Amino acid sequence: MKERSKLSGGPPQSRIIGNNAEISRPLTVFAYLFIPFISLLVLVLLVFILSDTPGKTLYFFFLGPFRNLFSFGNMLNAAIPLIIGALGVSVAMKAGSFNLGGEGQIYLGAFCTTAVSLFLSKYAIGQSGILTGIISVIFGFVCAGLLGAFSGFCKAMWNTSELITSFLLSCAVIPIVNFLVCGPFLDTQSSLQSTRKIAENLRFPLIMKPSGLSASVFITAALIIIVQLFLSRTKPGYEIRMTGSNELFARYGGINTKMVTAAAMAISGGFYGLAGSMAVMGTYHSVIKEFSAGLGWNGLAVALISGFYPPAIIPSALFFAWIQAGARIAMQNTGLTYEVASIVQAVIFLVSTSLVIRNIYSRRRKN
Hints:
The chain is an all-alpha fold. The protein has one domain (29-366): ABC transporter involved in vitamin B12 uptake, BtuC (Orthogonal Bundle). Helices cover 70% and strands 0% of the residues. The protein is globular. The two termini are 16 Å apart.
């Protein structure tokens, strides 16, 4: 238990017992810089191979998101659900669990928040936008958290792999929500397959018009501080970290590791659901069919890049959002396809989880 994250400077974070041991190993600062370097190198090579005007394409890819407030604000807005989802992954990982159910949890959280908002508005219960918004967001958090809690409970009681249960639950939830969105809650006045829009008094105000960046950015910043303080300064946070670092030692120390495992997965699912709630309240104002596709996996990749250290999630999410925004702008102005961004994201995921890379830089750090 002598390994320390050079970025956090906090308590030791040793290997997690089980199949997630190597992936959970903290990266060195050099490895943090190595991941975006390799990803951008692949990006440049793909542009020269696939584009007829590589110079123009690279210009729009790298500088396009910063050309005006609209593009820059939308890039920041795209990073918000990635940050919140990555926070959820980090909490679960600190406890030695791996949540692969982000796709379904985001979708469910968004739908439950929307459904409660529509219900309260319909029956004139929610005249106060703040109170109604809080109730709706809490409901989305709880519903998504229950999905994560179920996987954590199965792991704690029967040692069932949370990777399998969380992923399968996510796969089961998505078609159910699709049925509700396209069935009982379908907005027949819209050209999209979506629910009705939530009331205007429930929507977060925009702070960088004409972009879609809303006040949810301030909530996201507060969540990063809260999670960091929770993990590093509170007793439950200490129990989560100890359970993930050495479950046997934690049990001998009087920690109810089964309860901690289930609670950490519940918090993880809840944060994913909160990401969906923020997307509804701040950006879409309704649930569009499968709008969250890819957000769960991208949030997981952001958490991997950041080494599950909350403050490091911010630059990781911004990097991911920059890649997405640059690909979209380059596609609009050149002949480049948007799939290039998916390839780059796949490279990021591969490099950040590469056991070879982690072993190399772990040995460099020890030396």
